[in-house]
Design goal:
Elements: E1 14-21, E2 27-33, E3 38-39, E4 46-47, E5 49-53, E6 57-64, E7 67-73, E8 76-79, E9 91-93, H1 107-117, H2 122-128, H3 133-143, E10 157-165, E11 173-180, E12 186-192, H4 197-206, H5 209-212, E13 215-220, H6 224-233, E14 238-241, H7 243-268, H8 271-275, H9 281-285, H10 293-305, H11 307-324, H12 329-345, H13 352-366, H14 376-391, H15 398-415
Parallel strand pairs: 2-7, 10-13, 13-14
Antiparallel strand pairs: 1-2, 3-4, 5-8, 6-7, 8-9, 10-11, 11-12
The structure holds zinc ion.
Length: about 425
């Protein structure tokens, strides 16, 4: 039978002096550095004249078999022969690679916390790890910058401007600027405080010229300020309104009519009749091809009571089909114009707000057909942002928002 279990501490250049367990069941592991020199904080020279041990510090480390672990260490102090004189001795404390003297944790522990923060919340981490909220924020601040480092990039290819409303039902938007690199990676470049043209322009103008030149496409929502800002700063980049944003608009139009019609039917139909179309909302939102047979029947019953809904549904599906097709920009423009005309000559008015949008942004919308490959990502990012919003409700500090997005997108790659 084994009576001993050997576990690596994963801390370089130390030897263990003592292991104790306190009353709470935490391991307190006392270690000593095996390195015999340090760098003078004044002259930068390597010095090895031992002076003394500093007061003991305690650092939270990775858990062992479910127990919290604390590393206890008395840092070594060295005297610099070059900087000291008879009156004043210059003493430097030994710096070790596995902890930061400003932190109460080992780096290994902090990286584990960061990894667990991906798609989670600070509150969650604080509770699970029995850490203070501020301690978690401190860890994030030590590892995640609040601004992009341009030096890490060679090319951007596609840049996205996406907005999120930070408070429910209020129109204070922040703008998330991302780059989609050639290998499919998504990088957060900035979180801007509002969606005004001058704000977006100022950010784009701050980007180094060598990187500006590498942007061939900018994907945005339908918002004139973005389009103008991009044109003014990145003249040659093509602005694309992604089909995801377009689809949201026309699908909402069709959905509004569904709400109105169901309200009408509820008052006009008998209870028994109304019961036969209950639950029609989800099938109505699905594409024709995704309907199960009983859902298709349910929809047909609904459409028999409300023919205008069938018409709206069919128009919605026709437009989606256009975006699915492998068309050139010219072909797509023609197809969409034809669709527009048919909607206008129909009895429907639910698409009217969308038709106005279409007139304003047709060029940017059909630019989608120039670089179809640049799309799928937006949906992915939008979902990430939606989830982040739910988790970080009221996270109004833009620096924090930038850090959290950065962690969600890159945390696994960096800390796993
Ligand atoms: Zn010195």
């Amino acid at each position: 039978m084994f009576s001993k279990l050997s576990i690596s501490l994963d801390i370089p250049d130390v030897q263990v002096l003592d292991i104790k367990m306190n009353k709470k069941g935490d391991y307190i592991i006392t270690v000593e550095s095996t390195l015999a020199s340090t760098t003078c904080h004044r002259c930068g020279r390597e010095i090895n004249k031992f002076h003394s041990h500093d007061r003991a510090i305690t650092l939270r480390h990775l858990p062992i078999l479910g127990h919290q672990v604390y590393i206890r260490l008395r840092p070594k102090r060295y005297e610099c022969p070059f900087c000291s004189d008879k009156k004043h001795r210059k003493i430097s404390t030994q710096q070790l690679s596995w902890y930061d003297s400003k932190s109460g944790h080992t780096k290994a522990y902090e990286e584990q916390v960061l990894l667990q923060l991906v798609n989670s919340t600070i509150q969650d981490m604080a509770i699970k790890e029995n850490l203070g909220y501020e301690a978690v924020v401190g860890i994030i601040n030590r590892y995640v910058a609040t601004q992009v480092d341009w030096g890490l990039f060679d090319r951007f290819e596609v840049v996205g401007l996406d907005e999120i409303a930070l408070k429910k039902g209020r129109s204070d938007y922040v703008v998330i600027v991302t780059a989609r690199l050639k290998d499919g990676q998504v990088k957060v470049l900035a979180v801007l405080p509002n969606r005004e043209k001058e704000t977006v322009k100022a950010f784009l103008a701050r980007m180094p010229t060598r990187l500006q030149r590498t942007i061939h496409t900018v994907c945005t929502d339908m918002w004139q300020a973005y389009i103008n800002a991009v044109k003014e700063v990145l003249g040659s980049a093509v602005v694309v309104v992604d089909r995801y944003h377009v689809a949201t608009k026309y699908r909402n139009c069709a959905d509004k009519l569904r709400q109105q019609e169901l309200k009408r039917l509820k008052t006009e139909l008998s209870e028994d009749e109304y019961n036969t179309i209950k639950g029609a909302m989800w099938p109505y939102r699905k594409n024709r091809a995704d309907l199960k047979p009983q859902e298709a029947e349910l929809l047909d019953r609904l459409f028999a009571y409300a023919p205008s809904l069938k018409s709206a549904y069919d128009f919605r599906e026709q437009l989606t089909a256009i975006f699915e097709k492998d068309l050139t920009k010219t072909q797509a423009t023609q197809a969409i114009k034809k669709w527009r005309q048919e909607v206008e000559t129909s009895q429907l008015t639910c698409f009217d707000p969308f038709l106005t949008t279409l007139d304003t942004y047709l060029n940017e919308i059909t630019n989608y057909f120039l670089h179809r490959d640049s799309s799928g990502f937006v949906e992915g990012l939008n979902n990430k942002i939606k989830v982040l919003k739910r988790r970080c409700y009221g996270l109004l500090n833009l620096d924090h928002l930038f850090q959290r997005l950065f962690l969600d997108l890159e945390g696994y790659a960096l800390f796993a």
